[in-house]
Amino acid sequence: MRGAARFAHPVFWLPTVLTLLVVAALWSWVAAGNPYVLPTLPSVGRQFLDQPDLYLTNAWTTLSEALLGLLAGVAAAVLVAVLICESALFRRGVTPLAVILNVTPVVAIAPALVVAFGFGMTPKVVVTGLTTFFPVLMNTVTGLRSVDRHVLQVFRTVDASRLDVLLRLRFPSALPYLFSSLRVVFPLSLVGAIVAEFSAAGAQSGLGTLISVASSNSQLDRVFAAIACLAAMGSLMLLVVTTVERRALSWHESQNRR
Amino acid sequence: MRGAARFAHPVFWLPTVLTLLVVAALWSWVAAGNPYVLPTLPSVGRQFLDQPDLYLTNAWTTLSEALLGLLAGVAAAVLVAVLICESALFRRGVTPLAVILNVTPVVAIAPALVVAFGFGMTPKVVVTGLTTFFPVLMNTVTGLRSVDRHVLQVFRTVDASRLDVLLRLRFPSALPYLFSSLRVVFPLSLVGAIVAEFSAAGAQSGLGTLISVASSNSQLDRVFAAIACLAAMGSLMLLVVTTVERRALSWHESQNRR
Amino acid sequence: MSTEPAPGAPFVAVDDACKTYGDGEKSVRALAHVDLQVPRGRFVSVIGPSGCGKSTLLRLVAGLEEPDAGTVRICGRTPEAARAAKLIGFVPQVPALLPWLDVLGNVRVLEKVNRPAGRRGSRRGLASDPVALLTRLGLGDVLHRRPGQLSGGMQQRAALARAFALEPQVLLMDEPFSALDEFTRESAQLQLLDVWQDLRTTVVFVTHSIAEAVLLSDTVVVMAAGPGRVAGVVDIDLDRPRHHGQLDTAAMHEHEHRVRQLLETAWNPLEPSGRDVA
Amino acid sequence: MSTEPAPGAPFVAVDDACKTYGDGEKSVRALAHVDLQVPRGRFVSVIGPSGCGKSTLLRLVAGLEEPDAGTVRICGRTPEAARAAKLIGFVPQVPALLPWLDVLGNVRVLEKVNRPAGRRGSRRGLASDPVALLTRLGLGDVLHRRPGQLSGGMQQRAALARAFALEPQVLLMDEPFSALDEFTRESAQLQLLDVWQDLRTTVVFVTHSIAEAVLLSDTVVVMAAGPGRVAGVVDIDLDRPRHHGQLDTAAMHEHEHRVRQLLETAWNPLEPSGRDVA
Amino acid sequence: ACGGSDDDDAAGGSTPTGSRGSAVSAERCAQNEAAGRVTYVTGFQYQASASILDPIAARALGYFDDVCLDVEIQPGTGETAQNAQLVAAGTAQVSSIAGNGDVLVNVANGVDVKAVAMFGHVPVATLMTKPDITDLKQLEGTTLGQKGALPVTIEAMLRAKGVDLSKVKQVVVGYDPSVLVRGQVQSLTGYKSNEPLTLAAMGEEVTEWNPEDYGVPGSIATTIVNPAFLADHRTAVEDFLRAQLKAYAYCEDHAEECVADAAELSQAGYDTDHNVEVWRTETGLVDGSLPAGQVLGQIDEAPVRTEGDFLVQMRQIPAVPDLGEVVVPDLVPSLYSGGELVWPVP
Ligand SMILES: Nc1ncnc2c1ncn2[C@@H]1O[C@H](COP(=O)(O)OP(=O)(O)OP(=O)(O)O)[C@@H](O)[C@H]1O
Ligand SMILES: Nc1ncnc2c1ncn2[C@@H]1O[C@H](COP(=O)(O)OP(=O)(O)OP(=O)(O)O)[C@@H](O)[C@H]1O
Ligand SMILES: [Mg+2]
Ligand SMILES: [Mg+2]
After folding, report:
1. Site to substitute for ligand 1 among D18, D20, D21, D94, most atoms within 8 A of C-beta
2. Residue A64 touches partner E, C-beta closer than 8 Å
3. pLDDT per residue over C98-133, tens digit each?
4. Domain CATH for A243
5. Which helix or strand (DSSP H or E) is residue B47 part of?
6. Which residues, in sequence order, are bridge partners of residue C45?
7. D99-118: pLDDT as tens digits
8. H or E stretch at C37
9. Which domain holds residue B175?
């Protein structure tokens, strides 16, 4: 109830709306002077009105790739973070690998991905997973380590198993860090999915494919309509994470309102 | 002294070396079966031996783009994080914008970047900056808010100025979060620079350009030699961040060794 | 000096203050209609059962919480204005040190933040020499250790030094000696009395030790819980300076006894199950 | 029961333990050649000036720190083995509650983590009913509040309940009542004595209150600082059960006096500048 | 989620075809079916280029069905090296690649594919300038926009005209051809069948400088196959090309219908009008450059060698690979009889 009321209050949405209006004004001004660089806002809007289905179905493709990739990437990152945190040997072994995966440009390994995973959705999910992996890994490692010394001592005096320390102590302590990274990777997963659609053969649909096709035809209005979809999805994902975070971290200083 | 000795000890480097050996073995096995997907390691090595200059100069170009972008992106992110943390209005206004910037694919805004920044290094620095901006922003915001309640109260009783609270209290409290994100964005900045070279205007050199040309010619050995450069640079950057972090956060739980 | 209130008016005045934490079903009434008047330069101790709202009252005076009803005035001003005038020194119940600074740094950082207070020009030895201050508190050897490397009592003393160094007009202290042994505590008490007398500081001092309250204070305020309220006030009309040798005098015992009685009535109705188990 | 040591052997034995924190120039000698023998079922208090190494000693016994030299044995085993056998209950100097769990959750989580101890089968009321335990400690109304919503004393009592609920064979407590008022403290003391007598628990109890140490203990160990060492041991040969009414008896005073004297000599050489200011 | 080959509705072209196998003998049908699913990767998405639109149409028209082929069409990303690698790895069996030059570069870099057909005999790349440029020499001291690397054919053209390339500033531009119109670059590389059309549609007038006018060799749309697949299932490759060529001919007359088929396949937005133009332009280039006496699709060693020598000269490859190993010249001619495509196949 209070949550919903919060959203309805002008203080909540007015700044957002105002910023968007300012951006729109700036946009229109630039677009008027540079019709080849930015499409006009009405022409972008018309895209949605003319073919809502086109954007909905492609957005859905990209969103489902992004969400599956998120699931895989976040799960893998948390798992590896746990292993890194539990074993320095593992950390030294795996960190260089993680960096390699992180800096390898997708376009370079796109053929390998298609060979390994076929033309379907899998390579896109893999790319998205790789994109989300590193930020979550780094934050979760720090989070798992940021355990209050005294509480850890209490747990150690009762000979808490590593699993208990992990699940009941380290994991909750890591949540503020984990959520910070989730706020990063939820929107970022969309970028991962799009880049995968750009660069791996076999992309039949998705906003990335749409942007790629539209830009090869110089259909600026379509490109930017797709970007608008992405921005909307990204903002929504961020809102979801923030809302869950607010509930899950009500005990943490970072959620104090002043 | 102790730092240097630490690196020299086998416990430090052996796991890394072992992992790399295992990866190399796996690699060779895959490359033998699929020479079109992965080049053999000797052929990659030969690339370096044959043309060390090529890789050094291009790596330097990419590195300088990445570092400049990092500087800009991290500075902007910390600044915006401070503003967000100081004003809820600003947060509501600016967050959607940040998401839009974060999810916009570089390829789509490449023309706009050219118009705005010309063909030089600037558009790459801008793209790199945008890549690094969001992770740092999100973590720094959480960090600036994660201030111990009691310490904050003490500061408030002496009517500490916002600036004092920020510089002397919030900022140090945010350091563990900031460093987590720096560990992410230092390697990530290389990806940003490369993507910029792929898609933004005016790239004449840089590992991204090298990869893009080589991969369109199926010169896998060259592609992977460039990736090896990236991985080496990324690992080095990570090592630098981690070392600085260790010193700067010696007071923080996350740096406890067990 | 602009900090002088109207003559006769109390320096710290809490009028009919109420404070409830949270809302709805889960709300907690921490304070109900609490009055507290502290004339300038007075040393007032607040004593009461655990959870009765002593810390809340102190935070209210410091302006760290808003009362739901009633008013708080320091020297005739709102707590915010008093903070802006750099009148307040606060020792919270936990040491609340900055973990990234050493002991000396922790004392100095608050001085720096409090800078405009320096303009009063009345600075004496204290603030200008935090090292001496820390040394007197027995921390001379650990000036450059970080809080994480200190014992509990050392942390508490560092927090104490930090507040003393501010030379505040009002010193609000929340169980500042709870982690100190008898002798270190005595030394710290003496130093507190020094600060108080030299600066004519007004002190509001939360403690659980009846003896300490009686020894140090002009007035002991006894609070009761459920909800937090003032159960009684005991004026300690003993001569100054007092010293620990007086602890066993009849006059002292008499006062202690009155405070203990008040406290017992304040405590008893609350936790009926507490005492009958033996 | 497998936890029985060889007859006559001390249950908790610290032999010639040394502990230095850090290394190089910045090192701190916290303990030097400390011996401590606690027979099974004994109640031993440790008292000493702030920073003399009491907490360090307790952490050494709990196996949370390794001694640089010397040995620690609990029931003939290493602290690690004792922990594995779920013999130990520890109340640290700070409450160390989990901020994301409510009071009840904080008590239960440690029980769950300590699960194999349940297999001892000897569980009595305590652990099986944490709500009753918390109610007796005056926390019956705040079972579902989180640590951040509790007063300092409430947090300390929650930490106390958490340790009691474990029904440990050895209870290591670091100033567990420091944030409690006189009456709440008395009630908590009584409950501690209950636990101790019912379970034949061996207690090592760090406190700053001489009266408390004398009232509760069989033996008071007085420590001195610089570096931390045992300055003297006072056996309290008073009858059990004792009660607060005895506080003013001559026998009690006599013991208190001896402890105070030991403590004073332990304290005095350390901070020569501390007392001469008056 | 792949290909359109699962939805049978897509076969509803306007020319009704016979049932499965109607155009082949039972024996050949069995041979083709033994090849299993044939994966074809297009050059770029479902764009109406030669070797993209025609296979799509062949599927839609049911031609593949008629020859008992189970074809799956996967959209490529425009990075034709990826197509070559996928074919060499066997992930795809057949693909289209920009031209012979690309085949040679890939093969020279160790990617093992065979070229079985090609369509146009001119380079597809072009250099656009504003009309005020009347001599390429004028480009010295100006900025040239390209898409990642200057196409060798353009480079050769510029060199042939004596342009000092060190005096031309090269920059990489995005997909947006308007950089030329806005004067940010004075020349811009592109595909004859894309950017000029786009600019024309914007109403902008540009000059196209075509390499073939300066004696630079080139080709459009070379079909590559996996060598092992070719060895094991030659009839399948033959009949794939047969169906593709038949569809090519059909689409020359029914451009709108074929583009509509592609549009239907494309889920990511399709500019039908633009693509009809693309198809018309490309077929014009293909047909216009077909050497006399050759059949459509025919690939011979000679033009490939010319391109190879050219690439060696331009330092793109160290040496021309053994063309006997790369080019399969006899496959396409065998599809014809007396200049006519054989259909149905006996
Ligand atoms: N983690 C640490 N690193 C370095 N020095 C430490 C550390 N913990 C404690 N010390 C030092 O060891 C000495 C003993 O500390 P300890 O906490 O045991 O004292 P204590 O007797 O418990 O004091 P208190 O009564 O104030 O709690 C002190 O000088 C303290 O500064
Ligand atoms: N932030 C908070 N949110 C909710 N309830 C709170 C909060 N702070 C304090 N309370 C409640 O208010 C009451 C008074 O707390 P307060 O800390 O003022 O007690 P206290 O007298 O200082 O006790 P102690 O002697 O134990 O420190 C308690 O019931 C406590 O649970
Ligand atoms: Mg309190
Ligand atoms: Mg201690």
Report:
1. D21
2. no
3. 999 999 999 999 888 876 554 555 555 555 688 999
4. 1.10.3720.10
5. helix B41-50
6. C205, C220
7. 999 999 999 998 888 765 55
8. strand C28-38
9. 48-255
